[in-house]
Write a structure and sequence with these properties.
The structure holds two protein chains of two kinds. By secondary structure, chain A is an all-beta fold. Helix content of chain A is 0%, strand content 52%. In chain A, the strands form two sheets. In chain A, strands 2, 4, 5, 9, 10 and 11 form a six-stranded mixed beta sheet that branches. A five-stranded antiparallel beta sheet of chain A has the order 1-3-8-7-6, with no helix packed on it. In chain A, a hairpin with a 6-residue loop joins strand 4 and strand 5. The relative contact order of chain A is 0.35. Chain B is mainly β. Chain B has no helices and eleven strands. In chain B, strands 2, 4, 5, 6, 9, 10 and 11 form a seven-stranded mixed beta sheet that branches. A four-stranded antiparallel beta sheet of chain B has the order 1-3-8-7, with no helix packed on it. Classes of the chains: A mainly beta, B mainly beta. At the A-B interface, strand 5 and strand 9 of A face strand 5, strand 9 and strand 10 of B.
C-alpha cells in the first residue's frame, strides 16, 4: 500500500461546480497534513494546512478523518483558475519529513 | 520571511556531462532542505535531504549526489548524466509549521 494515495483523475467539471478530492494515508501516527496545488510546469505551492477540526479558506474546505485515515478537499464554485493538480501531503512516521501523494488533476471547463 | 532561490530555470545537457544545481535560502537558520525530482506526468520523488551542514541523507541510490557546504546552500550534482536523469528538479525548505516551500525548479533535459 502506498503511504499516501490519491485518485489521479482527471476530474473534469464545469465552472461553478463543487468538487471533492479524497486522499488516504497509511501511517496512523502521522500528525501534519497539507494540501498543495501544482500548476503545469511549476513548483507545488501550499494551498492549506489541514487541522483536526476541519478548516475553511474561502471556497476551499479541508477535512481530516483520523479514524479512517483520510483527508478531503472540497472546492465550491469552481473557477477556471482552479485547474491544476492537487497534492495531498502527510508527515512521515510522525517526524518532520513529508510524503506527497501522486496528485489529483482538476480541469475546470467553461 | 523565508525565501528559496534555485537556478538555472532550464538546462539542456548531453549524456555523460556533469551537473551542478544550486539552491540557496534566506530568512532562516539551520533549515531542513530537500531535493526532489519530478519526471514528466509523475509525482515527486525525494532524492536527498539535509538537516545541517555536511549532513546528507539519500533516499534513492543513483548517480546523483548532494552536498551542503554552508547552512543556507544545498547543491545537487552528478559526474555523468544519464538520459533517465531528465526531469524537473525542485529544492524545498521546511518552514516552522512543517510545510515545505519549494524553489521555482530546474527543468533538466539530458540529450
Amino acid at each position: 500500500r502506498k503511504e499516501v494515495e490519491q485518485d489521479p483523475g482527471p476530474f473534469n467539471v464545469p465552472e461553478g461546480a463543487t468538487v471533492a478530492f479524497n486522499c488516504t494515508y497509511s501511517n496512523s501516527a502521522s500528525q501534519s497534513f497539507f494540501w498543495y496545488r501544482q500548476d503545469c510546469r511549476k513548483e507545488p505551492k501550499l494551498l492549506m494546512s489541514v487541522y483536526s477540526s476541519g478548516n475553511e479558506d474561502g471556497r476551499f474546505t479541508a477535512q481530516l478523518n483520523r479514524a479512517s485515515q483520510y483527508i478531503s478537499l472540497l472546492i465550491r464554485d469552481s473557477k477556471l483558475s482552479d485547474s491544476a493538480t492537487y497534492l495531498c501531503v502527510v508527515n512521515h512516521n510522525a517526524g518532520n519529513m513529508l510524503t506527497f501523494g501522486g496528485g489529483t488533476r482538476l480541469m475546470v471547463k467553461p | 520571511s523565508q525565501t528559496i532561490h534555485q537556478w538555472p530555470a532550464t538546462l539542456v545537457q548531453p549524456v555523460g556531462s556533469p551537473l551542478s544545481l544550486e539552491c540557496t535560502v534566506e530568512g532562516t537558520s539551520n533549515p531542513n532542505l530537500y531535493w526532489y525530482r519530478q519526471a514528466a506526468g509523475r509525482g515527486l520523488q525525494l532524492l536527498f535531504y539535509s538537516v545541517g551542514i555536511g549532513q546528507i541523507s539519500s533516499e534513492v541510490p543513483q548517480n546523483l549526489s548532494a552536498s551542503r557546504p554552508q547552512d543556507r546552500q544545498f547543491i545537487l550534482s552528478s559526474k555523468k548524466l544519464l538520459l533517465s536523469d531528465s526531469g524537473f528538479y525542485l529544492c524545498a525548505l521546511q518552514g516552522p509549521a512543517g510545510g515545505y516551500t519549494f524553489g521555482s525548479g530546474t527543468r533538466l533535459t539530458v540529450v
